[in-house]
């Protein structure tokens, strides 16, 4: 059975609504950061830190995309999607946006490690509430 992690956008998050393009732009920012780190180290760190190719199928346009590993022995797939859920706070029903990161059944240990890394990066960028694959919760927004 596949595993999923969620980044939920709460009131203290930088944005309240999210699109797939927002997620892609943050991943592009991650790729650029690691490439620059690699240039400083005179090493192709960008290729090692992001060993995937982003693929968006026509049927998932605007809803989901996946990363396909460049080395199938080490990395296979990580899926990203966006959605909304209804939550009730103080007797009021509101829409809460989230990012879902899914690992298929045949994921490698490399996929799990990279998915956790991407989850933490995205949660920090959006100041969200990260629900990890192991059901633990990390808070990346200011709490009272």
List strands and helices in order, with pairings:
Blueprint: E1 3-8, H1 20-41, H2 45-49, E2 52-55, E3 64-69, E4 77-89, E5 92-103, H3 109-126, E6 129-131, E7 137-139
Antiparallel strand pairs: 1-5, 1-6, 2-3, 3-4, 4-5, 6-7
Helix pairs in contact: 1-3
Report what the structure shows.
This protein is an alpha+beta fold and 144 residues long. The protein has one domain (3-21, 51-139): Rbstp2229 like protein (TATA-Binding Protein), CATH 3.30.310.120. The chain is 31% helix and 33% strand. The chain contains three helices and seven strands, in the order βααββββαββ. It has helices at 20-41, 45-49, 109-126; strands at 3-8, 52-55, 64-69, 77-89, 92-103, 129-131, 137-139. Strands 2-3-4-5-1-6-7 form a seven-stranded antiparallel sheet, covered by helices on one side. Strand 2 and strand 3 form a beta hairpin. It is globular and about 55 Å long. The N and C termini lie far apart (37 Å). The mean pLDDT is 92.
